[in-house]
């Protein structure tokens, strides 16, 4: 018998709000339960999903140049460190980093990341910060001492924000990091639609499983009764907004119970589960400037698939 899972009031409230909207939607943050996180890690290794390996390639091939531009003795503050692999890569490239401060809402992930980074750099001070970085938060006083702070936000997670949310995040990050800080930001670039759609609709169907897991999670943690075979994964390029949208499309008319309500779906009606904005450099520069940052450098791979930015406050 499987263990009972507690209902999550915040998930129930978000689901009721999103499924009551004229265009049904669910916040993408709920994609990442333990199974969603495992599936996302599998996505990053797929042949079609170029962003992770291209960003790693840029950090690897341009590491020296990045280190020189950043300078000696930076305290690295990473927003959402994932498994810590990119932190190890960046810290290994930088000149005498002063400290590493991973910021995440999940304390258990932070412990793993801290262990990984300490294993690689036993003498580097590592100070995990438990906080939701999509909201205002403060770094602990004296975190990283007097060292200049370098924010690190990789993986093009900035693309999962609406543009106005991206500006708000960048402005808050600037305030949190403080005067004289810098930010290293990974951002995916606009490119051929076929490449983009394949990256979000892979032939092994891992992204489909990642998207559909959200309905399984709603069944487990919001007491819903979605029939998983009643929905299909779709990844569509929205040319007006220059973003990939993930949807769950109803295969047939159906009614779903959740939180004491019934939600009706027409055949073909979809739930929008995630947007992944792709940027042209000029547009991202505008957003960064609106948040009070100035572009110092930009590095890309030879095919110009992905970009890594150094911003100055
Ligand atoms: C986490 N984020 C940057 C990924 C992206 O590419 O937008 C999430 C993802 N969704 C489907 N595949 C990957």
UniProtKB/TrEMBL annotation:
Keyword Transferase: yes
Domain of life per record: Bacteria
Protein keywords: Methyltransferase, Transferase
One MF annotation (Gene Ontology) recorded for this entry: L-histidine N(alpha)-methyltransferase activity
Record keyword Transferase present: yes
One BP term from GO: methylation
EC code(s) of this entry: 2.1.1.44
Cross-referenced Pfam families: Methyltransf_33
Domain Histidine-specific methyltransferase SAM-dependent: 13-312
PANTHER family with a match to the protein in the record: ERGOTHIONEINE BIOSYNTHESIS PROTEIN 1 (PTHR43397:SF1)
Matches recorded under NCBIfam families: egtD_ergothio (TIGR03438)
Protein name from the UniProt record: L-histidine N(Alpha)-methyltransferase
Species of origin: Falsiroseomonas tokyonensis
Gene this chain is encoded by: egtD
């Amino acid at each position: 018998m499987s263990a009972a899972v507690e209902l999550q009031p915040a998930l129930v409230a978000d689901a009721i709000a999103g499924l009551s909207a004229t265009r049904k939607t669910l916040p993408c943050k709920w994609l990442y339960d333990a199974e969603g996180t495992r599936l996302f890690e599998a996505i990053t290794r797929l042949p079609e999903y170029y962003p992770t390996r291209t960003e790693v390639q840029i950090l690897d091939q341009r590491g020296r140049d990045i280190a020189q531009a950043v300078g000696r003795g930076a305290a690295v503050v990473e927003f959402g460190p994932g498994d810590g692999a990119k932190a190890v890569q960046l810290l290994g490239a930088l000149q005498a980093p002063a400290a590493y401060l991973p910021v995440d809402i999940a304390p258990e992930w932070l412990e793993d990341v801290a262990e990984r980074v300490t294993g690689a750099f036993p003498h580097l001070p590592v100070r995990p910060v438990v906080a939701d970085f999509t909201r205002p938060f403060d770094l602990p006083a004296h975190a990283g001492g007097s060292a200049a702070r370098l924010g690190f936000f990789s993986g093009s997670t900035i693309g999962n924000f609406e543009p106005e949310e991206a500006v708000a995040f960048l402005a808050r990050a600037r305030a949190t990091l403080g005067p004289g800080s810098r930010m290293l930001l990974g951002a995916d670039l606009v490119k051929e639609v076929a490449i983009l759609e394949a990256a979000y609709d892979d032939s092994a169907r891992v992204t489909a499983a990642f998207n559909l897991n959200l309905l399984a999670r709603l069944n487990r943690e919001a007491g819903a009764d979605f029939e998983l075979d009643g929905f299909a994964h779709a990844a569509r390029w929205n040319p007006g907004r220059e973003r990939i949208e993930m949807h769950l499309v109803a295969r047939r008319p159906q009614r779903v119970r959740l939180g004491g309500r019934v939600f009706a779906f027409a055949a073909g009606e979809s739930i929008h589960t995630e947007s992944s904005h792709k940027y042209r450099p000029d547009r991202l520069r505008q957003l960064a400037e609106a948040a009070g940052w100035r572009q110092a450098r930009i590095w890309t791979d030879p095919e110009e698939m992905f970009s890594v930015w150094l911003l100055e406050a």
